[in-house]
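Customer escalation, tier 2.

The customer says the design service returned an amino acid string that "doesn't look like it belongs to this structure." They asked us to rerun it and document both sides in this ticket. The original structure tokens are below, unchanged.
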């Protein structure tokens, strides 16, 4: 480095790099290349060399003037001075030949000592040619006279002469090492020589210094630590410096004028920006990026509202020039910091710290680019105001804190000019950078937000083509998200862009969109509608950039615009050929103004349905291609609807679908000067369902006579289901007829004979008539079986081998209803084959029609039962006669939704001891004369469940108790009879009376069990409570019910809660039908709920345990009462 660089106004030049110790090489410049030409790694600590001639004045020390640092945190040239001008080490290079006098060296040394900085260390380097190197006493004499230590006087051997002289590698490295160590020692000494913070400008009776002086102290120590690469010390002092800057900021912006500091607000901003970036860089280096983000955001939140100091804000500012100039400086300063931090994050040094992990919103460079763009946008607005205002004093520049605003801007490192065009270019550039980052991370909402801001800026500078591109990119998204306020502004801007670019299609599209009641008010919308009417010659031309149309413009109106919509429905949606259906078109309007259409055009796949409607009179519903004029106008009121009806008679079978791409078109004006609004055509459905294309199904014409079958949902197993068979005469007449019905499983039913005609029924919705009143269905006698059963109107059995139903005369166009009852006993699909043989008149030949109807059968209930056995019963493995047993019954509804079942009762029916009758039969269970019952109910054997309604997966539980009356082996002791009916749909909601359905009964046998006579009858008398220290008595009585003598052993043991009194073991014999009573005395020794010791009873004859040792019985023991003396 040949000379020092010129100082810069701001501190930004020193913010991105760490300083290197400055070492001055004075004299013999041809030898300096050995040090200045060396290459160093980026992270390697090295000296910064400046090569000077011996006659230089660069190192002359000029002391600061008094009061120069009174109201500043740091002098403007301090960083430049200590980085590029103030050398830590001055090395004086002299040629050391035999004829060199030491007096000249001493004189030069004294001169530099008097000129250099007092704390600067001087090192003398003597360059001696290797060829003439010899030992003499001059070196020791020079060291002694110059008062230099061994590290301050170096001898360096060189080779060559003149400009070719060079230093060997070893010697150069030695000199470099000594110079670097001495420089590091210099900065360490400088930190120690700096005054302590508490002594700087301390007020009387206070040990705390002035905040700006303490901040200066820590700033210098932090920068000196960076010279030495002492990162921990630098981080500590940067943090202390920033804390004192915040203390100073409180004084600068204080509302109390007596406490307010004289340090300008811009000075605090200038230093705080530098210190905050240093802190963030240090935190990044420690691998804690989230802490760095938080530190930077806190800094920005602190300074963002501080545009002017309180003193400057109170000054008279009639033109607003002071506020505008302060805004230009402040927002430019904020923009610079956001941009600087974004560059810091994306730099190769710190970007690997973030990696690909989830960064959060504050770890994205795009966020800071966008924030910088927002600040630059505010700067541009302030620049507009500043350019429009004049300085209040009539001078050439506006003052901020007593200084020209351009000087303040230069100190803060921002452009000292109010250039609106340059600020707009800056905004667009920053937004572009943010867009690229968010696009890489696929943040859709931020991409669209930045695109919106970019469009606004292009719109501001008059680049309407670019603005249109960006506005169109975001308008669809905002429309889908229903951000109406933002969308209204975008549509107005797009309309202006289209007008400036002479884009007629876009102008019409935006004009129509702005008619929405969510985007415009009535006054604005009326002006827009007048311009549209002028384009189609419906009214006198309003002021517009476009002449009337010369060609038709078609616009697609999407549902998400919530502008116009057309809902269609056919009534009825299915017809037979030759019949008519009515198409209803409901044109819904969300416009803020009324709209009168010139015509409404309908396009369909059937050319006969396509038509143009010009009025709402009945003539518009004719089958012609175009409706006649002269009716009511096609007026769509604001927020209302226009309803049109078209009666249509199709000429052929098939499906008539209203096309999706161009369904209904609303025309403003007449061809060719017209605007067509093309609407999507939807069906009348709920809002949360998917839209479908409305279509009309045209079926073949009705046959002369048809059959139809009606039943309420699936038939349930073991249900007496009421069904109906309908006979429609249509175009024929039935004079006499026989109706044959056959019901069978679907996989067993044979197809109808070749002379019969199959038929698929279609409900016509016409009036049903009957030639004779239909009798009410009688209750059939349903028995359990595998095959389904069908019963006639009078309860007679129908099907194979049964007589056919005789039908009376049925007139033309009437319907006869046969009320039937169907019962199924297994969940398998069924088919009903109906064959009617009839004559149309007396003497006419018989005709035959056959139809097959599928019937779904679903299970209704699943009834399960389980015995609640005690531990002894489970261990025994069988039940004993006359032993109390509990039975849990669960009724679970398995019918498909929306079927609901009403429970009536659950009964426990005992089985009978009759060998020839299968146990569990419903008929025999009800028969009281079939033999002895196998069980006797304890309490109620029938539970009334009226009012219980079960939906799908609903469950009801019942508990029964009974005693077995006799011994059986692996037999069911009884049957659970569950009575239920299907609930009529809508019966509960309507509140009306409905006909009681015939209850259905479901028989479920109990699980098989062994019942044996009991060998022993055991009763235990166990205490439930006692007192501490008082005896408790436990009794066990055993009765032998067996027919032989039995040997028994009864034992008892102690536990931690009781002591035992008396015998613990009893061995005895029991003859048949004899009893034995054993008593145990227990003494409680613990209070509370304690467990009784277990009792073991063993039949030694059969070696079986008669009592369950796992049974636990607890006793509550009270504390003993105190004895009163």
């Amino acid at each position: 480095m040949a000379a020092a660089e010129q100082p810069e106004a701001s501190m930004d030049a020193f913010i991105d790099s760490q300083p290197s110790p400055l070492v001055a090489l004075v004299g013999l410049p041809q030898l300096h290349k050995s040090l200045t030409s060396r290459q160093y790694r980026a992270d390697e600590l090295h000296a910064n060399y400046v090569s000077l001639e011996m006659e230089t004045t660069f190192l002359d020390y000029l002391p600061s003037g008094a009061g120069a640092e009174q109201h500043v945190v740091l002098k403007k040239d301090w960083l430049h001075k200590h980085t590029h001008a103030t050398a830590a080490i001055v090395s004086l290079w002299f040629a050391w030949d035999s004829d060199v006098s030491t007096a000249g060296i001493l004189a030069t040394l004294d001169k530099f000592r008097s000129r250099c900085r007092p704390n600067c260390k001087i090192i003398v380097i003597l360059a001696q040619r290797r060829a003439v190197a010899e030992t003499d006493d001059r070196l020791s004499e020079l060291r002694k006279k110059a008062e230099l230590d061994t590290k301050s006087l170096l001898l360096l051997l060189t080779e060559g002469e003149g400009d070719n002289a060079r230093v060997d590698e070893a010697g150069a490295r030695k000199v470099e090492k000594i110079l670097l160590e001495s420089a590091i020692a210099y900065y360490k000494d400088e930190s120690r020589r700096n005054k302590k913070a508490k002594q700087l400008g301390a007020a009387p009776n206070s040990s705390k210094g002035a905040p700006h002086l303490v901040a200066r102290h820590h700033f210098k120590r932090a920068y000196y630590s960076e010279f030495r690469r002492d990162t921990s010390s630098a981080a500590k002092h940067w943090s202390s410096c920033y804390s004192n800057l915040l203390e100073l900021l409180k004084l600068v912006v204080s509302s109390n004028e007596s406490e307010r500091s004289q340090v300008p607000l811009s000075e605090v901003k200038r230093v705080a920006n530098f210190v905050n970036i240093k802190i963030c860089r240090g935190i990044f280096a420690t691998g804690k990026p989230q802490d760095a983000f938080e530190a930077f955001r806190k800094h920005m939140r602190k300074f963002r509202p501080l545009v002017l100091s309180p003193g400057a804000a109170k000054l008279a500012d009639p033109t607003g020039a002071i506020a505008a100039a302060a805004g230009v400086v402040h927002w430019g300063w904020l923009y610079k910091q956001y941009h600087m931090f974004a560059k810091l994050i994306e730099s190769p040094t710190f970007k690997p710290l973030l990696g690909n992990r989830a960064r959060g919103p504050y770890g994205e460079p795009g966020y800071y680019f966008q924030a910088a763009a927002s600040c630059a946008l505010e700067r541009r607005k302030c620049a507009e105001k500043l350019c429009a205002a004049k300085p209040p004093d009539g001078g050439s520049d506006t003052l901020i804190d007593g200084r020209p605003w351009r000087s303040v801007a230069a100190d803060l490192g921002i452009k000292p000019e109010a250039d609106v065009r340059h600020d707009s270019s800056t905004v667009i550039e920053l937004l572009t950078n943010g867009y690229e980052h968010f696009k890489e991370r696929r943040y859709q909402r931020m991409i669209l937000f930045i695109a919106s801001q970019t469009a606004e800026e292009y719109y501001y500078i008059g680049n309407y083509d670019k603005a249109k591109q960006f506005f169109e990119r975001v308008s669809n998204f905002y429309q889908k998200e229903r951000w109406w306020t933002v969308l209204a502004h975008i549509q107005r801007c797009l309309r202006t862009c289209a007008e400036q670019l002479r884009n007629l299609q876009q102008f019409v599209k935006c004009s129509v969109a702005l008619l929405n009641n969510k985007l415009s008010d009535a006054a604005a919308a009326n002006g827009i509608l007048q311009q549209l009417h002028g384009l189609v010659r419906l009214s006198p031309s309003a002021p517009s950039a476009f002449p009337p149309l010369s060609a038709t413009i078609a616009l697609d109106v999407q549902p998400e615009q919530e502008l116009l919509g057309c809902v269609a429905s056919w009534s009825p949606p299915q017809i037979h050929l030759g019949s008519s259906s009515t198409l209803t078109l409901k044109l819904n309007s969300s416009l803020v103004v009324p709209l009168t259409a010139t015509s409404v055009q309908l396009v369909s796949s059937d050319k006969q349905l396509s038509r143009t409607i010009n009025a709402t009179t009945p003539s518009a519903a004719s089958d012609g291609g175009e409706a006649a004029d002269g009716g009511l106008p096609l007026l769509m009121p604001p927020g209302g609807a226009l309803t049109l009806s078209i009666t249509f008679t199709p000429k052929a079978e098939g499906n008539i679908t209203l096309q999706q791409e161009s369904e209904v078109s609303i025309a403003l004006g007449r061809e060719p000067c017209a605007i067509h609004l093309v609407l999507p055509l939807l069906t009348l459905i709920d809002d949360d369902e998917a839209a479908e294309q409305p279509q009309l199904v045209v079926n073949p014409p009705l046959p002369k006579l048809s059959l139809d079958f009606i039943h309420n949902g699936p038939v349930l197993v073991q249900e007496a289901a009421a069904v109906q068979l309908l006979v429609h005469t249509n175009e024929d007449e039935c004079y006499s007829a026989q109706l044959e019905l056959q019901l069978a499983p679907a996989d067993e039913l044979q197809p109808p004979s070749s002379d019969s005609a199959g038929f698929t029924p279609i409900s016509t919705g016409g009036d049903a008539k009957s030639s004779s009143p239909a009798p009410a269905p009688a209750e059939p006698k349903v028995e359990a079986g595998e095959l389904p059963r069908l019963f006639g109107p009078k309860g007679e059995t129908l099907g194979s081998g049964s007589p056919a139903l005789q039908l009376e005369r049925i007139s033309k166009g009437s319907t006869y209803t046969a009320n039937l009852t169907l019962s199924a006993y297994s969940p398998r699909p069924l088919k009903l084959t109906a064959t009617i043989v009839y004559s149309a008149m007396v003497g006419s030949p018989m005709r035959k029609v056959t139809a097959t109807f599928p019937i779904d059968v679903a299970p209704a209930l699943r009834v399960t039962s389980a015995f609640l056995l005690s531990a002894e019963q489970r261990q025994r493995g069988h039940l004993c006669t006359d032993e109390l047993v509990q039975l849990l019954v669960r009724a679970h509804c398995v019918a498909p939704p929306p079927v609901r079942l009403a429970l009536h009762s659950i009964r426990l029916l005992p089985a009978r001891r009759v060998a020839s009758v299968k146990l569990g039969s419903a008929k025999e269970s009800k028969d009281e004369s079939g033999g002895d019952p196998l069980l006797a109910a304890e309490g109620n054997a029938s539970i009334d469940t009226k009012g219980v309604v079960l939906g799908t997966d609903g469950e009801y539980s019942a508990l029964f108790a009974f005693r077995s009356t006799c011994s059986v082996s692996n037999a069911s002791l009884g049957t659970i009879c569950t009575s239920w009916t299907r609930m009529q749909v809508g019966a509960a909601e309507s509140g009306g009376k409905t006909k009681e359905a015939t209850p259905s009964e479901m028989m479920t046998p109990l699980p098989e069990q062994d019942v044996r006579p009991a060998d022993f009858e055991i009763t235990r008398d166990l205490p439930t409570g006692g007192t501490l220290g008082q005896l408790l008595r436990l009794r066990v009585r055993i009765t032998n019910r067996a027919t032989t003598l039995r040997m028994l052993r009864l034992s008892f043991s102690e536990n931690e809660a009781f002591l035992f009194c008396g015998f613990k073991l009893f061995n005895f014999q029991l003859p048949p039908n004899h009893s034995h009573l054993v008593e145990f005395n227990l003494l409680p020794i613990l209070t509370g709920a304690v467990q009784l010791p277990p009792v073991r009873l063993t039949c030694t004859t059969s070696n079986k345990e008669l009592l369950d040792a796992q049974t636990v019985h607890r006793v509550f023991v009270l504390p003993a009462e105190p004895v009163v003396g």
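Tier 2 assessment: The sequence is consistent with the input. DSSP finds 23 helices and 55 strands in the chain. The two ends are 110 Å apart (CA to CA). Sent an explanation to the customer and offered a walkthrough call.
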